[in-house]
Amino acid sequence: MSDECEVVTTTGGAQAILDRRVGEVMHPVVGPAVEAARLYCEPARLAARLQRSEPLVLLDVGLGAGSNAIAAWRLSEARTAGPRLTIVSFERSLDALALALRPEHAADFGLDGAAGAAASTLLGAGVHEAARTTWRLIAGELPGSLAGAPAADVVFWDPFSPRANPELWSVAAFTTLRGRCRAGATVHTYSGATAVRSALLLAGFFVGVGEPTGAHKAATCAAVDPADLEHPLDRRWLARLARSTAAFPADAPADAYSRVAGHPHSRSLRRAQPSARRHSHAPQSPSGELHRDDGRPRRLKVESDP
Ligand SMILES: C[S@@+](CC[C@H](N)C(=O)[O-])C[C@H]1O[C@@H](n2cnc3c(N)ncnc32)[C@H](O)[C@@H]1O
Fold first, then answer.
1. pLDDT tens-digit profile of 153-176?
2. How far apart are CA 270 and CA 261, in angstroms?
3. Which residues pair with 187 in a beta bridge?
4. N- or C-end of the chain: fewer Cβ atoms within 10 A?
5. Cα-to-centroid distance, 5 and ligand 1 (Å)
6. 171-220 pLDDT, tens per residue?
7. Domain for residue 13, yes or no?
8. Ligand 1 site, residue 159, Cβ cutoff 6 A
9. What's the number of domains the chain is made of?
10. Which CATH number does the domain housing residue 72 bear?
11. Is 141 in the pocket of ligand 1 (CB under 6 A)?
C-alpha cells in the first residue's frame, strides 16, 4: 500500500483523502459525499436523466477515491428500471481508491456493501458490471487518455486545482473533451475561476454558474446545448473578463478575448435577452426562469459569477 495518500478530517468534520504528492485534499471542507451530490450528481440532474429511455454515458475525470463515481453508481443501482448507465473513470494513480476501500475507511467513503464490491472489482479488473450500471476504468495520463473515451452525455471534471493540474484546465484539454461530448452533454466542475470558464468557452462549450462553493465562489456547469444551462454567464461576467488579470489559461490564443466576445454564448447575451424578457408570454417561475414544455429550464434569467 502506497503512503502517498492519507485520510484526514476536513474542517467540516468529514473524512477525506489528502494526496501528499500535490498537497491537496479531495473534496475539502464538506467532504466527499456532500460534494459528490451537490456539485456533480444534482446539477447534472442525473436521477432525472436516468429515467429517460436512452442509455447514458458519464465520464468521471479524476476517479480519486471514487466518491463522485460511486454517488452516480448508487443512484443508478437504486433504480428498478430505466436505461443503462456507463461510468467511465479516468485516473493515473489508484492509491486513493485503494486507501478508501480499506475496511476501516470504506463506509466513510460510501464504499461499503455492494458499492465497495463494485469499486474493488474496478480496482482489480478495470471493469464492473451491475444490474443497471457498467463501470470502467481508463488508467493513464489525462488529457491524452480521453482519446479512449466513448461519446459522453455527462462529465464530472474533478482534477486537482489549476495550480497542481494546469494541463487539465487548458483550452487544449477542454477542446479534447468537447470532441468526446454528444449533443445534450453537460460538464460539471467545482472550479469557478475566470480562466477555467473562458477556457471552456474557447473550447466551444456554453458556460454557466453552478452551485455555491464558498463565500463569493461558485462551481461551473458547461453544456453543448445552451438550453441545458440554468444560469448562463451574463454580460457582467463578460465585462469583468475584459478587466481581469487572470482571464485566460496559459494556452489561450492571442485573440482569446475577441473569440470569447464572438462566441455564440456572448452574441446571444447581446441579442436575445432584453427582447425575450419584454415580449415572452411563456410561464415564469418566481425566480424569473422560464420553463419549456419538457420541464428543462429555459435560460432568460442569467446570473453573474461571484
Ligand atoms: C481531486 S482528485 C479526484 C477526486 C475524485 N473525483 C473523487 O470523487 O474522489 C483528482 C484526481 O485526479 C487525478 N489526476 C490528476 N492529474 C491527472 C492526470 N494528468 N491524469 C490522470 N489522472 C490525474 C489524481 O490522481 C487524483 O486522484
1. 999 999 999 999 999 999 999 999
2. 10
3. 155, 222
4. N
5. 12
6. 999 999 999 999 999 999 999 999 999 999 999 999 999 999 887 899 99
7. no
8. yes
9. 1
10. 3.40.50.150
11. yes
pLDDT at 298 over 60: no
Q: Which domain holds residue 72?
A: 28-280
214 lies in some domain: yes
Whole-number pLDDT of residue 291: 28
39 lines ligand 1 (CB under 6 A): no
- In a domain, residue 6? The reply is no
185 CA distance to ligand 1 middle (Å):
21
Task: Determine which helix (DSSP H) or strand (DSSP E) holds 31, and give its type and residue range.
Answer: none
**Any idea which residue has 479534447 for its cell?**
176
- Separation of alpha carbons 122 and 115, rounded Å: 11
pLDDT for residue 283: 31
- Tell me how far apart the alpha carbons of residues 73 and 115 are, in angstroms, rounded to a whole number: 8
62 within ligand 1 shell (Cβ under 6 A): yes
* 20 CB near ligand 1 (under 6 Å): no
Q: Among all chains, which residue has been given the C-alpha cell 468526446?
A: 180
**SS3 state at 9:** strand
**138 in contact with ligand 1, CB cutoff 6 A:** no
Pairing between β-strand 152-157 and β-strand 181-189 as defined by DSSP bridges: parallel
Residue 288 lies in a domain: no
Average pLDDT, rounded, for the chain: 88
Which distant-in-sequence residues (6+ apart) come within 8 Å of 141 by Cβ? 92
Quick: pLDDT tens for 257-297: 999 999 988 888 776 554 433 333 333 332 222 223 233 43
Mean pLDDT across 7-29: 94
CA distances from 64 to 4, 16, 244, 267 (A): 12, 11, 32, 38
Distance 235 CA to ligand 1 centre (A): 33
